[in-house]
Amino acid sequence: MIWNPHYESMEREKLIKIQSERLCELVDRVYRKVPFYRKRMDEKGVKPRDIDHISNITKLPFLTKDDMRDVYPFKLLAVDPIDIVEVHTSSGTTGKPVVDAYTRQDIAIWSEAMARTLAMGDTSRTDSVHNAYGYGLFTGGLGVHYGARLIGANVIPISGGNTARQLAILQDFKSTVLTCTPSYSLYLAEVAGEQGLDFKNMSLRVGLFGAEPWSEGMRREIESKLHLKALDIYGLTEIIGPGVSSECEYQDGLHICEDLFYPEIVNPQTGEVLPDGEKGELVITTLTKQGTPVLRYRTRDITYLNHEPCRCGRTAVRMHRLLGRTDDMLIIRGVNVFPSQIEEVLLRIEGIEPHYQLVIDRREQLDNLEVLVEMNEKLFSDEIKNLERFEQEISEGLFAALGIHTRVKLVEPKSIPRSEGKAKRVVDKRQL
Amino acid sequence: MTLKQISVFLENKKGRLAEVTGLIAAEKINIRALSLADTTDFGVLRLIVNDPDKCFDVLKKNNFVAQQTDVIAVEVSDEPGGLQKILDVFNDNDVNIEYMYAFVEKKSDNAIVIFRIDQPDRAIEVLEKNKITVLSSEIINKL
């Protein structure tokens, strides 16, 4: 179901006109109201009158994650503080958190974007949405909540944690839509298995999973274990939270709400804008946001765009599911490695479950990448040679994909820590 | 007349073997024979016990990866050349041994050898043709 066909299936020409109008208005507004943006634009020698079309967006300066920390907490505010009705932040695990301040209209925009997202999974008034994203400063919980409320679905605001209770509620309330991180969905399946519960007997139809990168292999795993259709959703605190883009039922790229969030792909080194199909860093401009508007934010997420209309009837541009992040890119012996590449190799091998961890160490000036893979009954053999052959198969697969040698280590089941939020895949022990 | 052997995946970490034997002891399961094959990072523990089904359940319940495999137990006279006789039979009949381990019987002068073979039924057939006794699980449990 398309929630808002007017915008989601709009002709390109009309859309460009709207994007252009919104950008002009936005640039004019932030230049007047946010000293930070005025200074940045002045430094670049750009005035609001230079921006009269969306294609001029490339004249504007970028905004980086470091900038976001410098403006902490409220230096991006473009409205009177009295108009702010809600604030969210990122977790701040890597430094000062990023602050997103919403006006009443921003909450309405967010609700609209999330209603579009939920509708991609055919969510309607008849559905019950089991929302296991965390409620609080994190945007996941309330983002889904607002979207489901706008649709008129029944929201079960269970938030994260207490997995046993989650399963009981899922079963008893017959929820049809599940929202959480992809790694948590697999944890739910694992705990269900231990308790003798089968997702076959639950009513779940679709799951909207995001907040961390995941792979096609993991999708297959989730779909077969939870007996639902797994859709990838994308968003970030800096922009609005979840609701920036989402997969439709064809699972072939995530439709961006581009009347609200204008996407560009740039070369992460040079900042040069790249054409459709070329991989680079996603850059987003919030065309309509009032509280803390964002001009050309460098998301550090790697993807590419596809403007072809989709079979679902939407014309909104699609971004490929995240291929990695410029900042979780590991440099091992000089080679760029994304954890998602490793996951892709592992999950192609029959029997491997998505429980793995990458440990990087430096011995005698040389980086070592160790890939821990959990043993399970499907993989186990009483003969050592079979287990060693299996380690070798993984190692060769990784070498073919990455071009570096890795050490594969089989570990006991459930020895890799499970997460109720974002999975911790990488342990970097190097002291650089 | 094969026996059920339990094999368990163990990481090379302190106390893991003791944890397995502890679980088995707590269930009053008796270990008749065992062998541990190891590499740098992990090992595979193979056990012959008096109650393989129960042993398998206990291990699984405690999150160990375990497997049941059919193996053959053969009585070998505890004297020079005793094992040779059996290996010759396997060799002459192209029966390939994956691995083996032995233990000495208390109540007689014989040793018992456990063989893991790809096609155990064929192995039993050639052994019996050569008048070598293959032991049943009942006999092993009574020893």
Task: Write up this protein.
The complex is a heterodimer of chains A (432) and B (143). Chain A has 432 residues and is α/β, with parallel strands linked by helices. Chain A has two domains: 1-327, Rossmann fold (3-Layer(aba) Sandwich), CATH 3.40.50; 330-428, ANL, C-terminal domain (GMP Synthetase, Chain A, domain 3, 2-Layer Sandwich), CATH 3.30.300. Chain A has eleven helices and 21 strands. In chain A, the strands form five sheets. In chain A, strands 4-3-5-6-7-8-9-14-13 form a nine-stranded mixed beta sheet. In chain A, helix 7 crosses helix 8, helix 8 (182-194) packs parallel to helix 9 and helix 10 (339-348) crosses helix 11. The mean pLDDT of chain A is 93. Helices cover 34% and strands 38% of the residues of chain B. In chain B, strands 1, 2, 3, 4, 5, 6 and 7 form a seven-stranded antiparallel beta sheet that branches. The model of chain B has no long low-confidence stretch (mean pLDDT 89). The longest helix of chain B has 11 residues, at 16-26.
Outline:
The complex is a heterodimer of chains A (432) and B (143). Chain A is 31% helix and 23% strand.
Order of helices and strands of chain B: EHEEHEHEEHEH
CATH H-tier superfamily of the largest domain in chain A? ANL, N-terminal domain
In which order are the strands of the major sheet of chain A placed? 4-3-5-6-7-8-9-14-13
Task: Say how many strands of chain B there are.
Answer: 7
Oligomer class: heterodimer
By CATH reckoning, the class of the largest domain in chain A would read Alpha Beta
Number of domains of chain B: 2
The interface involving the most residues is between: A-B, 17 and 21 residues
What's the architecture of the largest domain in chain B in CATH terms? 2-Layer Sandwich
CATH superfamily of the largest domain in chain B: ACT domain
What percentage of residues of chain B falls in helices of 4 or more residues?
25-40%
Q: So how many helices of chain B?
A: 5
Q: Note the beta-strand portion of chain A.
A: 15-25%
Question: In CATH, what is the class of the largest domain in chain B?
Answer: Alpha Beta
CATH fold name of the largest domain in chain B: Alpha-Beta Plaits
Query: Share of helix among residues of chain A?
Result: 25-40%
Determine Rg of chain A (CA atoms, Å).
Answer: 22 Å
CATH topology of the largest domain in chain A: Rossmann fold
